[in-house]
Amino acid sequence: MNIEKVILSTSKTDSTGCGACASFKADNLQHALARLNGVSKVKVDEITGKVIIEYGKQKINLSKITERIEKLGYQVEILSRDEIQ
Question: What structural domains and CATH numbers belong to the chain?
Answer without folding.
Answer: 3-84 (3.30.70.100)
